[in-house]
């Protein structure tokens, strides 16, 4: 849904047939935030339940109902949804439920291996510690895997509309919001979906400058402060802070045979500590097995799930270390690594580097959100750290781009997220094009599928359409993504066989 006059580069980008073909591919998801992947209808249901129980909540079901549907949600609405999710994920039961449903949804999209990430949250006012939060997540994952094992055929893929989302206009307007860092003239909510024709800019203005970024009176309006406060799950760039310049000059639509893919770096952690072989158990394996319909076959379950714990960029060195140590303790339950995420304009690399080094020492794998906004010194430090993977890298200058390619560090790329948040101006201009053509190891991911209303299959379909990839190219992308997982070597080998079986069943 795009307001009159708004530019929609992506409409009809892919066909239903292409999307269906992508849904049949066995896929690997390596960059998915738990809270951003939640079903909006679940948030709605939790709000209704708690509201009916007479609980005072910082958001109302009505405020949730005012948000547009996933396919037509504006950027401002996406940020409001992050706030609402943060507000309702205050009970262990809600967290377990969300985790269970997220795993089921990825399995339904034929994701056969999932690395979820989440930021451990201590919320003493709700009786929640960082550890109890993560255990609730792991319990939800286990429940999903048990359900899938009991019904190995699993749910059927949920078909999406053929047309992808509208995307924001590439040029932000100066009147975006009172703080000047608002959503820009992105797609407006559909009147029939929101019940109001008022757009996000109007809503922000109506809230007043003092309300923007504040939780007083309900859901915060989009602003730099709102982004910082929303949640460490919030992995997106503040709109308007990222220039429409990415890695070098992309070559839209250019298709070249990718060069030989460098081996995924496995220098750190694999099998050397608690996150190594320990990951073979717990949440890693859900039982079940092949059912003859090409869902992996053999001993591979419908989906295997690992968990990464995210360090919020707002956290200091001690809090970061606490998260790392928690990850190591919970490695036997399937925690395999740590991530650095959150508001990209907050914090300093020096605060988290010691904790990340400790993670490596403990045998955990490390991935970092990098280059979501121009931050050359930080990106240089991150590259020097040599993490196992990086996410995004939208805003690298030529020198850092060359350094990234030379490093061969696998890159998690999230097309819809980057376009909707204006980290890149359009799908065809996404730096996927250049990196793919250069043979750099890349893996397509969703980032926040629930908030942005996407699926991994949809991301594959967008890539195929935007970069002129064939089904064989997509199959090769899926195949190579296995090399970048944080699972132990034995499990990676089993996954590779399962993916090959799945691909062979769908040629
Ligand atoms: Zn992210």
TrEMBL record:
Domain Adenosine deaminase: 26-149, 303-500
Cofactors: Zn(2+)
GO molecular function terms listed in the Swiss-Prot or TrEMBL record: adenosine deaminase activity; metal ion binding
Pro residues compositional bias, start-end: 163-175
Enzymatic reactions: N(6)-methyl-AMP + H2O + H(+) = IMP + methylamine
Listed transmembrane segments: none
Name recorded for this polypeptide: Adenosine deaminase domain-containing protein
Gly residues: bias regions: 270-297
Similarity comment: family membership: Belongs to the metallo-dependent hydrolases superfamily. Adenosine and AMP deaminases family.
Pfam families: A_deaminase (PF00962)
GO BP of this protein: adenosine catabolic process; inosine biosynthetic process; nucleotide metabolic process
Compositional bias per record (Low complexity), positions renumbered to this chain: 153-162, 219-238
Region listing for Disordered, in residue ranges: 153-297
Organism: Edaphochlamys debaryana
InterPro entries, per the entry: A_deaminase_dom (IPR001365), Ado/ade_deaminase (IPR006330), Metal_Hydrolase (IPR032466)
Sorted UniProt keywords: Hydrolase, Metal-binding, Nucleotide metabolism, Zinc
